[in-house]
């Protein structure tokens, strides 16, 4: 058996349609266009139809909105980790900041919902960027550690100083007019963010980001201020998280300390690893798998965090490419055994 | 006077928490995010042995130390060695292990009631008019002893010298027949051991709670960043800086501000001296 293994190996070849549709001939035939657009349309159509499919199950419609919020956070994490090279272990900070800003704008200044969410997105992104700015010169490890501390500290500070409603949180926010607007606002934001980010990482600025990740010294040597680019990356990622946080606050009509909870930090990371790091669409798939699991495990309390942690560990060690890269390989290539 | 005494005790506490973390990072360049979890795990194992199996305290301590060291080594050998050198994966995987341990304990073990370990020595003594209990004095004494022992181990034993060699130049160490994977396992076991030692010395002062895991990780990291990651002298000095800063803020500003001290220390360090008090970025430095 062992010998049989040695004398053959797996050969992978790109499918013809993939090779043809890679170049400028992509629009030569319907078949190739379908090949290219298929997976993208599947995701878009799938997400758009999902609320209707879940019509009879209002509870799972709620879960769908939560999935979208986690997905926003997860693509932000993926972008930051695999394109800018900053591992942010504290995604809860973004959710919390977004939630509190929109809550304050809504209850203190009386701004309506359609103004608070965009404002919270931009302002929240700025606040998070300013908070993390001193840590930006740090390389991966150090940044990960410091970003882990922020949500824990933010929760403790709010508790200790009894600001922003203390442990009770801020109540009485405006809710969405109805649950359909709730779901579709989030789904459309998610799709826009996903495709915009995929576009962005292939633009010039995306090249600089990847340069910062792979070799920051050489980017520096080219006369580019890497801290500014890192700040830009953090701003983009944290804005996405704050958008999610703002929506979350309006959905629950409440902002509180539990929005700095560990779940918001760990699920996006797990989703990214399960779905496939660096693919941006992978984290969304990861969230579609993990968040329902998390809902099913809700009765077991914190055991669910332990469960994701184990899933996360298993994927990172045994299947580190993730589902998305695996799927993309099967879709684009065929493989067969060849004798050596 | 009490500021001085409690400052020293607090600093020794922080130094104990940070030693294991800086040891592992120094040798194998692995940021061990499961450090806090190992700390809590040691306390819990000791509590189980003591209360469920009714073992004598000394035996329970020895067994808990041994078990945690084995867990740490096994964690490296079975899981982390496969992703060695991929820094993003290393961070995420060790963090995941830590979370699994901590949240698993919160769910399965540490709930309902308080879990406390008895103090090694009861009673207290007056030092210059301040009453200090024996356990806190032990923290300082044992902390100093641990630092001394590790220093001796690293500079005067074969294994220690091998670890030091690997920390300085892994390739050169390989050419001299030092197996870097085995050394990394050894460093991880040693790091876990010192987390366990810290836990068993410090936990009798309070109770065993899951939050301690996060707290210890954060403090260890704060000390290591301020001191310069991987530098021992730096870490000990930083423990004193942060330790006294905490005690001073508690005394003059109120206990609420204590949580801010660590992050403020990190941010100030990063702005003023990014490589830490003793970190020398461009020089060949001794990391063990």
Q: Can you count the helices of chain B?
A: 11
Give the oligomer, counting copies of the same chain as homo and different chains as hetero: heterodimer
Compressed to H and E, one letter per element, the order of chain A equals HEHHHHHHEHHHHEHHHHE
Low-pLDDT ranges of chain B: 281-288
The radius of gyration over CA of chain A amounts to 21 Å
CATH topology of chain B, by name, is ABC transporter involved in vitamin B12 uptake, BtuC
Using the 3D structure, state the CATH architecture of chain B.
Answer: Orthogonal Bundle
The best one-word shape of chain A is: globular
CATH hierarchy class name of chain B? Mainly Alpha
Number of helices of chain A: 15
Structural class of chain A: mainly alpha
CATH architecture descriptor of chain A: Orthogonal Bundle
Question: Helical proportion of chain B?
Answer: over 70%
Overall pLDDT metric of chain B: 79
Helical residue percent band of chain A: over 70%
In sequence order, what are the helices and strands of chain B, one letter per element?
HHHHEEHHHHHHH
Unreliable parts of chain A: none
The level-1 CATH class of chain A: Mainly Alpha
Protein structure class of chain B: mainly alpha
């Amino acid at each position: 058996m062992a010998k049989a293994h040695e004398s053959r190996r797996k050969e992978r070849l790109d499918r013809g349609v993939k090779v043809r549709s890679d170049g400028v001939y992509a629009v030569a035939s319907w078949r190739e266009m379908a090949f290219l657009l298929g997976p993208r349309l599947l995701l878009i159509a799938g997400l758009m139809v999902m609320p209707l499919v879940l019509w009879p199950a209002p509870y799972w419609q709620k879960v769908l909105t939560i999935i979208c919020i986690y997905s926003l956070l997860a693509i932000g994490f993926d972008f930051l980790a695999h394109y800018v090279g900053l591992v942010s272990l504290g995604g809860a900070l973004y959710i919390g900041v977004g939630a509190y800003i929109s809550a304050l704008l809504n209850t203190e200044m009386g701004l309506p919902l359609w103004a608070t969410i965009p404002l919270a997105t931009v302002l929240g992104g700025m606040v998070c960027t300013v908070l993390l700015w001193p840590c930006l010169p740090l390389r991966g490890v150090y940044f990960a550690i410091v970003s882990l501390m922020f949500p824990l500290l933010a929760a403790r500070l709010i508790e200790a100083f009894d600001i922003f409603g203390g442990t009770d949180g801020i109540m009485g926010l405006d809710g969405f007019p109805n649950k359909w607007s709730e779901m579709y606002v989030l789904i459309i934001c998610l799709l826009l963010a996903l495709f915009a980010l995929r576009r962005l990482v292939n633009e010039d600025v995306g090249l600089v980001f990847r340069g910062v990740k792979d070799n920051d010294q050489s980017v520096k040597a080219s006369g580019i201020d890497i801290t500014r680019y890192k700040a830009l990356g953090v701003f983009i990622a944290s804005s996405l998280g704050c958008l999610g946080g703002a929506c979350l606050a309006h959905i629950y009509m409440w902002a509180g300390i539990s929005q700095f909870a560990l779940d918001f930090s760990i699920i996006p990371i797990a989703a990214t690893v399960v779905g496939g790091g660096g693919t941006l669409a992978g984290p969304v798939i990861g969230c579609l798998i993990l968040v329902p699991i998390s809902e099913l495990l809700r009765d077991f309390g914190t055991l669910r965090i332990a469960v994701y942690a184990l899933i996360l560990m298993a994927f990172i060690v045994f299947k580190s490419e993730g589902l998305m890269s695996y799927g993309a390989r099967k879709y684009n290539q065929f493989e067969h055994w060849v004798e050596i | 006077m009490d500021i001085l005494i409690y400052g020293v005790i607090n600093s020794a506490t922080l130094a104990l928490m940070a030693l294991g973390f800086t040891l592992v990072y120094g040798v194998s360049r692995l940021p061990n995010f499961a450090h806090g979890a190992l700390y809590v795990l040691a306390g819990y194992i000791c509590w189980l042995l003591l209360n469920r199996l009714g073992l004598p305290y000394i035996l329970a301590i020895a067994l808990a130390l041994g078990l945690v060291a084995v867990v740490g080594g096994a964690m490296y050998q079975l899981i982390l060695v496969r992703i060695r050198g991929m820094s993003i994966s290393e961070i995420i995987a060790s963090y995941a292990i830590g979370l699994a341990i901590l949240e698993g304990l919160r769910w399965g073990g540490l709930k309902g009631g308080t879990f406390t370990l008895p103090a090694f020595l009861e009673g207290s003594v007056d030092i210059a008019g301040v009453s200090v209990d024996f356990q806190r004095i032990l923290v300082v004494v044992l902390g100093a002893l641990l630092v001394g022992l590790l220093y001796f181990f690293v500079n005067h034993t074969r294994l220690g010298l091998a670890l030091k060699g690997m920390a300085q130049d892994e390739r050169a160490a390989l050419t001299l027949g030092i197996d870097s994977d085995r050394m990394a396992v050894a460093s991880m076991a040693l790091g876990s051991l010192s987390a366990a030692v810290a836990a068993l010395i410090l936990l009798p002062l309070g109770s065993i709670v899951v939050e301690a895991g996060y707290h210890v990780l954060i403090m260890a990291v704060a000390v290591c960043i301020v001191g310069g990651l991987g530098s021992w002298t730096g870490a000990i000095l930083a423990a004193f800086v942060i330790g006294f800063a905490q005690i001073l803020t508690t005394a003059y500003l109120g206990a609420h501000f204590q949580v801010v001290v660590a992050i403020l220390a990190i941010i100030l360090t990063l702005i003023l001296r990014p490589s830490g008090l003793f970190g020398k970025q461009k020089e060949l430095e001794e990391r063990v």
